[in-house]
Amino acid sequence: MIDAFLQVLSPWLLIMAFAGVSLGIVWGALPGLSTTMAMALLIGLSTGMAQDTAIVFMLGVYTGSVFGGAISAVLINIPGTPDAVPTMIEGNALARRGEGGQALGMAIAGSFVGNWVGILLLVAFIPLVLSFALQFRSWEMALLAMIGISICGSMACGAMPLKGWIAGWLGIIVALVGLDPIHGVPRFAYGVPELMDGVNYVAVLVGLFGMTELFRVLPRKQQQAVPQSVGRVIPPLGKLMRYSVAAVRSGVIGAVTGAIPGAGANVASFLSYDIGRRCAGPEEKAMWGKGSYEAIVCAEVANNANIGGSMLPTLTLGIPGNAAAAALIAALALNNIVVGPTIEVDHPGLIYFIYASLIVANLLMYVAAIGLIKPCVRLFSLPRGVLMPLILPICVIGAYSVRLSMFDVWIMFASGLFGLALRHFRFPVAPIVLGVILAPMVDENLRRALLVFEGRPFSFVASQWVGTVLVVVLVAIFAEGILRLVRGSRVKTGKAAHGTR
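Structure (tokenized):
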């Protein structure tokens, strides 16, 4: 391990790690350009690099881009990455109150702590996390995705969780368009060739958040309240220590979720966000959804701890923990590294080098993030007539670049108009995006699980203890949302009765 650190701390590798982190932060901050896109499109830069240089560079991009989504989420209310949606909900509310610098500082601190927690827990508890992750088969993966969508729907609409759930299922319906991945049967394509490949979730993400925001802001006479100066970025030590328990808890959630193949940072972020609200004190819970620093800590720690967690199944089993990790596998393959159970035999010391690279990238991310926030503020604080024309081509490029298809650009514009209608009727858009992203996981795994359970007694299904626990969690989420809905209806009825007197 010491040799791995000494190797990573060589001047050239430090420069490349810093370059990767900086590119990742800028890329993640651009609306709609996700971590996966950053990893996939920047692989080309790593092809001519030496093996150790390519690893350090790509892990730097991975680390930086996960945090970068928080910058645009806080400043312009557009999440740079899907897992930054909880940060957008809380951070932009704080920015509108003139506390954007503190919100971004808390996001940086949360990202820094999350990376540490994820890496240290996985190094210390590799056998335990591995055995737990292997318990998640098709049934459990389908339930986990449904929990993520349900949590997002429940959290995004306050006292009206039904609207959030409807939005989540709308996202699932959108994701079902295209060829059935198991039998190859067209679904909801209606003979349109472009729909056979399905709907690109990046186009939907950019449309619902980026284009909807443009459609909302452009007609306004007053400019959007983007802070000209965010003020102090580094939060006081006392404020950081206040949320230390929430940070450790969220780090564990993010790392364990990352170790489950297919459960990405968006699941970790929303799961930690929901659990954090339930565990928060009364005063902090009242701020949830209105600008809570603890909520930012919960979301940012979890999605960054997810990085270390995703490395475990990726490196030891050859199963990518998420889509970004799949891109990392491709980058390693370009450098003649085949990940899997024999990785330590084929490449002795490589795992330690990767963990050392993650730690160094985390340290550099903290420095680069603080340095890049002020330029990003100046960028997003430009007059609306200048900024909006800059954001529009970025949105178009973000939608077009994934599949090089103009059809995805039209999907983006349609999603923007649809998002505008949803905002008008007070439906949340975040559950739709999460539904589009997680629906393939629900679809494939649920159908596969039904084939496994076919002809077996119910006792066999109940004997899958992890799945049983997840079913209880899913029922509890819906029950809590229904109780909240009932309480809200009673409060409205009481106010109406009081008003008629």
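The chain has 23 helices and two strands. The chain has a mean pLDDT of 77.
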